[in-house]
From TrEMBL, chain A:
<dbReference type="InterPro" id="IPR001041">
    <property type="entry name" value="2Fe-2S_ferredoxin-type"/>
</dbReference>
<keyword id="KW-0560">Oxidoreductase</keyword>
<keyword id="KW-0001">2Fe-2S</keyword>
<dbReference type="Pfam" id="PF00111">
    <property type="entry name" value="Fer2"/>
</dbReference>
<feature type="domain" description="2Fe-2S ferredoxin-type">
    <location>
        <begin position="9"/>
        <end position="85"/>
    </location>
</feature>
<dbReference type="Pfam" id="PF06240">
    <property type="entry name" value="COXG"/>
</dbReference>
<dbReference type="InterPro" id="IPR023393">
    <property type="entry name" value="START-like_dom_sf"/>
</dbReference>
<keyword id="KW-0479">Metal-binding</keyword>
<keyword id="KW-0411">Iron-sulfur</keyword>
UniProtKB/TrEMBL annotation, chain B:
<dbReference type="InterPro" id="IPR016167">
    <property type="entry name" value="FAD-bd_PCMH_sub1"/>
</dbReference>
<dbReference type="Pfam" id="PF00941">
    <property type="entry name" value="FAD_binding_5"/>
</dbReference>
<dbReference type="InterPro" id="IPR036318">
    <property type="entry name" value="FAD-bd_PCMH-like_sf"/>
</dbReference>
<dbReference type="Pfam" id="PF03450">
    <property type="entry name" value="CO_deh_flav_C"/>
</dbReference>
<dbReference type="InterPro" id="IPR036683">
    <property type="entry name" value="CO_DH_flav_C_dom_sf"/>
</dbReference>
<protein>
    <submittedName>
        <fullName>Xanthine dehydrogenase family protein subunit M</fullName>
    </submittedName>
</protein>
<dbReference type="InterPro" id="IPR005107">
    <property type="entry name" value="CO_DH_flav_C"/>
</dbReference>
<keyword id="KW-0285">Flavoprotein</keyword>
<dbReference type="InterPro" id="IPR051312">
    <property type="entry name" value="Diverse_Substr_Oxidored"/>
</dbReference>
Length: 392, 300
């Protein structure tokens, strides 16, 4: 292998259980690749010459300083970053212990402390509290003075004498496959789509989805009227706010684009949709989708639609499991959840209108930022009211 | 803290690595394995090689092998692996490796890289000298073996030519009549030592056969001294080969002081003056020689 100084090299490795590929110049460190190219900003950068330990990550099973590794040396490596350690609703015991012991103040060293202590307790389970200061000397803290950090680690060491549990979020971590120039040409979301080369394989992660959507909408149209629209993929696509079908590869495989505007954030996902099941008897459809936003993010998902008769009209049941990474995932689970649910509700409404011969109000154009924001606020307010009611 | 641009080559055969190094522009080629010393140098732009030759995918350099006499650690073998797998075979390595950088550094850093970098404060060069290790260097004219005592020529300088690669180091396997001592003082555990010592003592029925001790962080290169005579006299003066370590340490105070005066030549820095380093070497040398002697008796 030979790479000139001004050339980029393609490096593929595994980050938090997921394959990732970056295109970097030889001088780019792993810490920069993680942060600037993959958007994994949980790995902090302090001194950038191997003294402070902020950037500690796990590489092939052992902790290492990401600022002292050239990304190009890591072809085929398995990397775990702090994002892979736990989830907000399923913290790793170390993260929970740091929280319990108030082991962080500004939080800057915390990713390094977590990854270094994870490595320590994995290789030396049950290490005693008095050995910790020497063993944890590789990461500097500038505010809490270490005492609470050592207490937090000692607590976990004592609780798991046989070895600490593995990382809890490897498989669907927030990975941002940004283009390696760190920007892309998305502009206002109206970027050109490269000539499609044909359908791609879609891999939906087996792990827990970022967002699960269950929407059941009662609509006026009959089952048969709705099915006619659903069976015509192009018409169905027009019902999805901001979506359009770009190419039809045949065999029920398509290339599509969907634009989402949320306040100042404009995302434009382009990707593949494969309809894997289409059952006219039970009026159900299952599709896989995988799309990328050129400025950073992926959505992969499985969508299941089913229509059942209900009184004069029907009920559209939609179940979707979405694995999101990138900027949309950074909004946090609850907001991503709201956005997705809102889009599905708009979708079923448009489906209903189209089925009854009306023009859908959303076709093609991205959902309006103001409208979306208003909807979200309303949805949030309603949910809050419901929660309060339930408590009473 | 971003490195200046450099080209990168990753050969899979040693012969190709040597060729790449030789043909790098203006002799600006540099070998990278773990990069734990080199990458900071690049980040601070203290060095600006035109080409890095990555040797970690050269298969023959990834092995650690053992024969009757030696543990051979090839150039791409990382310190943490040596610490895990060879601490019993070569106990002085086992004592010293926990002091080499931090755990996170040892995960990637290599033993041979530490020797090739030849920092005067580093642990591995001192251990190699006290163990009389042999460094193998490969270049356009083939392989040559250099004893550790001849390998280091000054601060971050070795006998390795710019077109040569340190390909392995062989440490003699411990014999049962040997004992070891290792200690260093640093501002924080894992930082470069202000001063330290690596001692080996071989004895037969209480009689000292060999007692090399290497001091580091005190001069432009590790300083190896033979302390067998002084150690024998100290033991004799106590009249009891089984005297406790503390008594042997006390009896070694004078020769350790003389040795410290001899080996500490650094001008001192913000971490410690020349006098402070002399004092460290005096105390550490006496204690670790005594400890090494005591543990040499146990195996016999």
């Amino acid at each position: 292998m030979r790479v000139a100084a001004d050339e980029a090299v393609t490096v593929s490795f595994t980050v938090n259980g997921r394959p990732a590929t970056v295109q970097v110049a030889p001088r780019v460190t792993l810490s920069d690749a993680l942060r600037d190219h993959l958007g994994l900003t949980g790995t902090h950068i302090g001194c950038e010459h191997g003294v402070c330990g902020m950037c500690t990550v796990i590489v092939d099973g052992d902790a290492a300083r990401a600022c002292l590794l050239l990304a190009c040396q890591l072809e085929g490596s398995e990397i775990i970053t702090v994002e892979g350690l736990g989830k907000p609703d399923d913290l790793h015991p170390l993260q929970a212990s740091f929280s319990d012991h108030h082991a962080l103040q500004c939080g800057f060293c915390t990713p390094g402390m977590l990854m270094s202590s994870y490595d320590l307790l994995k290789h030396k389970p049950g290490i005693s509290a008095e050995d910790l200061p020497d063993q944890m000397s590789g990461v500097l803290c500038r505010c809490t003075g270490y005492r609470h950090i050592m207490d937090a680690v000692a607590d976990v060491s004592e609780s798991y004498p046989g070895g600490i549990p593995g990382p809890r979020n490897c498989g669907h971590a927030a990975l941002l496959p940004r283009t390696s120039t760190g920007g892309g040409s998305a502009g206002d979301g109206g970027h050109e789509i490269a000539a499609a080369e044909g359908p791609k394989e879609i891999h939906v992660p087996q792990s827990e989805p970022t967002v699960t959507i269950d929407v059941a909408s009662e609509v006026a149209a009959s089952v048969d009227e709705l099915w006619v629209v659903i069976d015509d993929t192009e018409r169905m696509a027009r019902c999805l706010p901001g979506a359009e079908l770009v190419d039809d590869f045949g065999d029920d495989k398509y290339l599509g684009r969907i634009q989402v505007a949320l306040g100042p954030v404009k995302l434009s996902f382009v990707g593949d949709i494969h309809v894997t099941e289409r059952d006219p008897d039970s009026h159900s459809l299952r599709a896989l989708a995988e799309a990328n936003d050129p400025s950073g993010g992926t959505v992969q998902g499985v969508v299941q639609l089913e229509i059942d008769p209900s009184g004069e009209g029907s009920i559209i049941n939609a179940h979707a499991e979405m694995h999101m990474t990138g900027r949309i995932a950074q909004f946090g689970r609850s907001l991503a959840d709201d956005v997705s649910n809102d889009m599905f509700n708009q979708f079923t409404a448009a489906l209903d209108a189209t089925a009854r011969g009306e023009e859908p109000e959303v076709g093609g154009a991205p959902p309006s930022a103001v409208k979306m924001a208003t909807r979200l606020v309303l949805a949030r307010a309603r949910a809050l009211v419901q929660r309060i009611k339930r408590k009473e | 803290m971003k490195a200046a641009p450099f080209a990168y080559v990753r050969p899979t055969r040693l012969q190709d690595a040597v060729t790449e190094l030789g043909s790098a522009q203006h002799g600006g080629g540099k070998v990278i394995a773990g990069g734990q010393s080199l990458v900071p140098v690049l980040a601070m732009r203290l060095g600006r090689p035109s080409t890095l030759v990555d040797i970690t995918r050269v298969e023959e350099l990834t092995h650690m092998t053992v024969d009757d006499q030696c543990l051979r650690v090839a150039a791409a073998v990382r310190q943490r692996r040596v610490q895990r797998e060879a601490s019993q075979l070569v106990p002085l390595l086992g004592l010293a490796l926990p002091w080499v950088g931090h755990r996170e550094i040892r995960s990637r850093g290599t033993v041979c890289g530490s020797l090739a970098h030849a920092d005067p404060s580093a642990e591995m060069p001192a251990v190699a000298m006290s163990l009389n290790a042999t460094v193998e260097v490969t270049g356009p004219n083939g392989r040559r073996q250099v004893s550790a005592a001849d390998f280091f020529t000054g601060a971050m300088a070795t006998v390795t030519e710019p077109t040569e690669i340190v390909t392995s180091v062989s440490f003699p396997i411990a014999s049962s009549d040997e004992g070891y001592g290792f200690a260093e003082i640093a501002r924080r555990h894992g930082d470069y030592a202000i001063a330290g010592v690596a001692a080996r003592v071989r004895s037969t029925s209480g009689a000292v056969v060999e007692a090399p001790i290497t001091s580091f962080g005190v001069s432009d290169k590790p300083q190896l001294r033979d302390m067998s005579g002084a150690l024998q006299r100290a033991v004799d003066s106590l009249g009891d080969p089984a005297a406790p370590t503390s008594e042997i340490t006390n009896a070694l105070e004078e020769p350790a002081h003389a040795m410290a005066e001899d080996v500490v030549t650094t001008a001192g820095d913000s971490h410690g003056s020349t006098a402070y380093r002399k004092r460290l070497v005096r105390v550490l040398a006496a204690r670790e020689l005594a400890r090494a002697y005591r543990s040499s008796l146990k195996g016999a």
